[in-house]
Design a protein that fits this description.
mainly alpha
């Protein structure tokens, strides 16, 4: 009896828990999201010991600038620096330099003098922070000459950010006499990303005259240097120059940079050049268009380049150009460009520049279809329907056409409807069975 009571009690408890769990879960799901806790107030920070402030300040060196942790850490460093803590001042210099912050205007008194004191004792981040303050006019009057002097000092003691900044100064003449060679020299030890960014910034400053001097030839040299690191940068600049999106339109400079980017291997730039040349009726222009399309189509994701080669071949170009097109399509197909596979398949289907081979055409379309091309599925579906290059197989034809339709290929719906009509399926019914529409004798 006692054992039975225990079982009943346990059963009741289990049931109550089972009912309570979903209720608790539902309450948790419907509860409002917890508010992000705010950081300590300035009064609370001032009440903290310096060691605690330094720990909070350390977080600001790695935290994202738009987070509570960063704001709290920055304020903690300001408080500790105002107390005269030199470690806090040096850390503050690092934060200022890393994010190019303007804090002295509303910050603790004499922050510039504190940073200068640490700079004189070998803290390169403090040197760089002082340079930025003169450069931006943060707590001190703007003085580009002094800024350049401090940037040069910080660069000489190994600060990489300062190296990029003094390179910009030399490249544009901001605070120093322009010296292209010196600018490039200081960028040699800067990481590729910052190097490229600085080169582009110098180029735009010289192109637009934002630092006083306008020199498009020099700007193009800096843009071209950036293209050595990342070709697509030159193409992006070229598009801005062509469209005038940065307040300056120069189509001649844009054309030069497009070619630079293309020669460096940028797929989009090569396609752009090819599109410009493809419409010409001159054989040499068309030949160059094919070469640029071929280069661009090595990027298997570049659909436009593969389509460009296919389009030129479909227009029945001069006979001496055909082998070059076929070779280009083959290279692009080998690289996995789906559109090039389709173009090469068309060449084998029609016997253009190669010996006609429906089987080879079907094989190429199968590769493109396997890679997800809706057009390849459509074309291969037609081949299975007619039995050209493959064995006739209406089920495969319908499956391929259905997939092409689902992928949005416009012609697939019409072809599919003709395949699924009674007249289309009758050709593949069992000869021993009555066809749809036949009258069965009774």
């Amino acid at each position: 009896m006692i054992r039975t009571s225990h079982i009943l009690l346990l059963s009741c408890l289990m049931t109550s828990v089972a009912f309570a769990a979903p209720v608790k879960q539902e309450q948790e799901e419907n509860a409002a999201p917890a508010a992000i806790p705010a950081g300590p107030s300035l009064a609370q920070l001032k009440a903290m010991p310096t060691a605690r402030l330094l720990k909070l300040g350390q977080i600001a060196l790695t935290a994202k600038i738009d987070t509570v942790a960063f704001t709290t850490g920055l304020d903690a460093l300001k408080v500790a620096s105002a107390r005269g803590d030199r470690v806090a001042t040096r850390m503050l210099g690092k934060v200022i330099g890393r994010h190019e912050l303007e804090i002295a205007k509303n910050g603790p008194a004499r922050i510039e003098s504190k940073l200068r004191y640490e700079a004189l004792r070998g803290a390169s981040s403090s040197v760089y922070a002082v340079a930025g303050m003169y450069d931006r006019g943060d707590g001190v009057p703007v003085n580009t000459k002094k800024a350049a002097e401090w940037y040069l000092w910080a660069a000489r003691v190994g600060n990489k950010r300062a190296m990029a900044s003094i390179a910009y100064a030399y490249g544009t003449g901001r605070g120093v006499e322009r010296d292209e060679e010196a600018a490039l020299k200081w960028l040699q030890e800067v990481n590729p990303g910052r190097n490229r960014m600085t080169l582009v910034e110098i180029g735009w400053a010289l192109a637009t005259g934002s630092e006083g001097a306008t020199d498009m030839p020099a700007a193009l040299r800096f843009f071209e240097r950036a293209a050595q690191i990342s070709p697509n940068v030159a193409y992006q600049v070229a598009m801005d120059l062509e469209r005038g999106t940065k307040g300056l339109q120069d189509r001649e400079a844009a054309g030069y940079l497009i070619k630079v980017a293309a020669e460096r291997g940028d797929s989009a730039a090569a396609t752009h050049l090819a599109n410009m040349l493809a419409g010409s009726d001159k054989l040499e222009d068309q030949r160059q268009a094919v070469q640029w399309y071929t280069l661009a189509a090595h990027d298997k994701e570049n659909v436009a380049a593969g389509q460009g080669l296919t389009r030129i071949l479909a227009l029945r170009p001069q006979s001496e150009l055909v082998p070059t097109i076929i070779a280009g399509l083959q290279k692009a197909a080998d690289a996995g460009n789906r559109e090039a596979l389709i173009g090469l398949a068309q060449a084998y289907a029609d016997g253009i520049g190669v010996e006609s081979s429906p089987e080879r055409a079907a094989s190429l379309l199968q590769q493109a279809s396997d890679a997800g091309s809706p057009e390849a599925k459509y074309r291969l579906g037609l081949m299975y329907k007619s039995g050209t290059g493959v064995g006739m197989d209406m089920k495969k034809a319908i499956a391929l056409m259905t997939s092409a339709q689902e992928s949005g290929f416009p012609l697939a719906a019409v072809a599919l409807s003709s395949m699924t009509e009674p007249s289309a399926t009758s050709s593949v019914t069992d000869p021993g069975q009555p066809k749809t529409g036949d009258v069965v004798a009774k």
